[in-house]
Amino acid sequence: MDEIIRSDDTVNGLLNVVGVVRPRGSVVDAPPHVPPELKLIFDEAAECVSIGAWNASSAMFRKIIDQISKDRMNAAPAGPPADKRTRYNLKPRLAWLFANNLLPKEVEALADAIREDANDGVHNAPLGQADALDMQDFTVELLEALFTLPGRLREAEARRAERRAGPPTSS
After folding, report:
1. How many C-beta neighbours within 10 Å does residue 35 have?
2. Count of alpha carbons within 13 angstroms of residue 75, beta-carbon side
3. Domains of the chain by range and CATH?
4. What tens digit of pLDDT does each residue of 146-165 get?
5. Which DSSP letter does residue 112 get?
6. CA-angle at 13, arms to 8 and 16, nearest 5°
7. What confidence tier does 170 reach under pLDDT thresholds 50, 70, 90?
8. Which residue, 156, 149, 127, 3, is CA-closest to 62?
9. Which of 65, 45, 67, 69 is nearest to 127 (CA)?
């Protein structure tokens, strides 16, 4: 320890730095069946919530909505809309996706709540813990509706097909 105190070198020059330790509270996991690129964003947002970075978490949760909407828009059967504002602005893009049934109507209120709250955090007053937790809850529900439920249904269909393909059983 004395060697470190008397040294003119940086601490990194005297120690073997193996990695960075970040504070971490209780982190909410991304729901099952979420695509890896969205899981990565969700994990970062949830980590921000766990350390009290409310505005940062809200921006990341909004980024999830933005990415989902871009993916759905670009995969649209007729292609993305011709209107540049709709292609590049989240609010009209979401409206276009819901109007064209490319996102389920059941998640419209959730998507808009996340978008609106996160916009407040970026452009208006800073957000607090309650805001960040609301956005985290809404984002979990949105991801479950869009990815978890369909993933579980695919798994159930695969199990059913597997059982039907096997030898008949007697009742």
Report:
1. 14
2. 9
3. 35-142 (1.20.120)
4. 999 999 999 999 999 999 89
5. H
6. 145
7. low
8. 127
9. 45
Instruction: Tell me how far apart the alpha carbons of residues 115 and 62 are, in angstroms, rounded to a whole number.
Output: 6
Report the distance separating Cα 71 and Cα 64, nearest Å: 11
pLDDT tens profile 29-88: 999 999 999 999 999 999 999 999 999 999 999 999 999 999 999 999 988 888 999 989
**Structure token pair of residue 99:** 């109007």
**Could you give the residue ranges of the DSSP H alpha helices within 7-148?**
11-14, 36-50, 54-74, 84-88, 90-99, 108-123, 129-143
Amino acid at 107: V
In the numeric block, which tokens belong to residue 58? 């809200």
- CA 32 – CA 170 distance, rounded (Å): 35
**Within 10 Å of residue 94's Cβ, how many Cβ atoms?**
24
Query: Considering only CA atoms, which of 124, 146, 5 is closest in space to residue 69?
Result: 146
Q: How far, in Å, are 63, 81, 93, 144 from residue 69 at the CA level?
A: 10, 12, 7, 16
**Alpha-carbon span 9 to 23, nearest angstrom:** 27
Which pair of tokens denotes residue 35? Answer: 């695509």
User: If you ran DSSP here, which 8-state letter would residue 102 be given?
Assistant: S
At 111, list the tokens: 């998507």
Half-sphere exposure of 108 (CA within 13 A, CB side): 14
